[in-house]
Amino acid sequence: MGCWLSRTAADVIAGDQPCVTAKKVYSWDKREKKDPAKYTIEKMVGVEVGRMPGMIAGEQFVVRECSHCCIFLLDHLNTITVDDCSDCTIIIGPTSGSVFIRDCKSCVVVAACGQFRTRDCQELQLRLLCNTQPIIEASTRVRFSCYQLYYEQLQDQFRRSGLSVFNNNWSEVHDFTPGTDGDKNWSVVMPSVLPDLKLPSQSPFDCVGIECSRTTSVVPFTMGSVSPPSYRMLGDEPLLVIIYHCPQQGAIVKGVVRVLQEAAGLSAVLYTREVTISPTEAVRVLGEAAAGDAGALLTAGPVVALLVDAPYHHIQQSVSAVRRDLYFLSPNNGNGYNIANKFFSFASLSMSV
């Protein structure tokens, strides 16, 4: 009879081997290790430097301690911080998260982002698209203008970042530390007031074809709060133009804006918004007539709206080439601005949710 304590030779050999437990592998262990140097520019003086399209690919980025530089970040990003820079021009690609500028002086920044904030900055010139309200803190002499930029890859980079080119709150600035004497720390200005933007002059950045013209800009120019609250009233009253969702929506909107600005001037378009509105909400906000035949288009996707301050015949001209069932124009009967105001109030509430 065998003893339960007895062991075979194989048991002895196996028992002599150490017990090895497989190491648990987590999802973050499988991620490709990133080289921080690829996503950092620091301590540069008097040079053109940056990253070409495809080199950042939605990662976080850091710029710090640079002076008298032209910095071109020509790709979409996750977030970016810019620290301790002076006398620099910085062009930042579409940034899905935040652009945070700290302790900078005498810089020009072109940025499109989800959130924008400055702290402890002086003498900034900002050409901005921001899907939320820009914020400044402990900053002085900051000038805001509407983002105007184009290069071939930019439209696709906006798509990858998830930013809307039509939800631009560039002029709706909130100052956490307003002056006590009534003077504002910031102002909104027309692009013509700002010095010409420094564009690339050296390879490889000069091959990208950067332009800062309103006629080619991916983001349409809007006046924002450059106009007083009562608006400039070039026309009978500011009116609402809505382009319903369709495959050509973006091209239609840009065509309408182009015709308006050529006919009535750069100040014709005050605001644009891209927002989802249901048929029921459309009836409540715009009225029965507006939503009656547009139910399928409203459920297909977001609409793009323009608040327009131009003579009525110019507004009619701007949509004359658009298929009639693809747009809504508020009536020029004294109630048009009330409808526009209701829609933009609805849009603001929807975007804040």
From TrEMBL:
Keyword Cell membrane: yes
Record SUPFAM superfamilies: C-terminal domain of adenylylcyclase associated protein
Recorded topology in the membrane: Lipid-anchor
Main location: membrane
UniProt xrefs under Pfam families: TBCC
Top-rank lineage group of the source organism: Eukaryota
Positions that bind GTP: G97, S98
Coiled-coil ranges from the UniProt annotation: none
Localization per Swiss-Prot or TrEMBL: Cell membrane
GO cellular component term, pick one: periciliary membrane compartment
Protein name per its UniProtKB record: Protein XRP2
Recorded name of the encoding gene: LOC108665517
